[in-house]
Amino acid sequence: MTERAPLDVLIVTGPLGAGKTTAVNRLLKAEVAAGRRVAVLINEFGAISVDGTLVDAERPELAGVENLVNGCVCCSLRDDVVATLKAWCDQPEGQRPERVVLETTGLADPTDLLDLELEPALAGRLRLAGLLSVISCLAPVDHLKTRPLLHRQAALASLIHLSKADLDPSAAVAWEGELRTAFRHIPLVPTRHGAAPEDSPDPWLGDVRPLPEGWAPSGGASFAAARSLTLHWDHPVDPSALEALLLAPPAEGELLRAKGVCAFAGWAARNDGSDRWAFQLADGRLEISPLPLLPDGPAACAAVVIGTGLDATHWKKALRDLERPPEGGRRKVLLNR
After folding, report:
1. What integer pLDDT is reported at residue 72 of this predicted model?
2. Could you tell me the pTM of the whole model?
């Protein structure tokens, strides 16, 4: 019996809103274009997978898609990750993926993922091909020193993509200087519109090194204070009110990330028949992009808000108040208990 080649796994990590999903979509398209069978495993901190919806909208011919929500792949969902990878390894030749992209939540410490090859169910069947860390140059440059989780996500990388360099070249230069000083041994590539230059290092050929002596998982402390809330919309929302809500400083706590899918009141459907839009709040910028029709119909409208110290009741009411029901329509009302 011919020995089967191991399944190559590329971990994609980085802070919330850094541009991981954009990078993942480009990786998937490149693999499909090269004729390889590729699967994607996405973990998000929230009750629904907005990033998974954005990947589905790209419609590449994937060998597998799995979304893990409401947890972190480096701790509470590790068993699910192992089970998913094992199931893909068990598939017959011609169906099993050749490569898997594993996108972690921005609140994940990837330390515990570096020993996946040692899992009894995966031993000899999986190869860690690289760890790509995506870091946004729009984040304050002092985060490298003041945010331990970001530092760990960069320090473990076999390749760093400095994203959004096209949006602020001066910030990209500042970040590049800090990262090259801190991690001289790690290749670093500024990306524009999520794309790396053609002569950039191949993320799948990363040199994943053993953990430094004394290095241990953070034990979840880096994201223990973060909470997410999800609200499903029944009607289109007011685009101006959405922008005002997400860009205003919250009355309580810190808003780390917001994302979702919606229809906008007063906006007609586009030529492709879709009236859905994806929105992303990161680094103080709100980005809105068209979301094509999915193979099984329009994406559900919902918002995910992630932060620390946020008033969940206030935020759910504020998000619900963005709805603009049609004439005669009804809007859900939150009841205080």
Report:
1. 47
2. 0.80
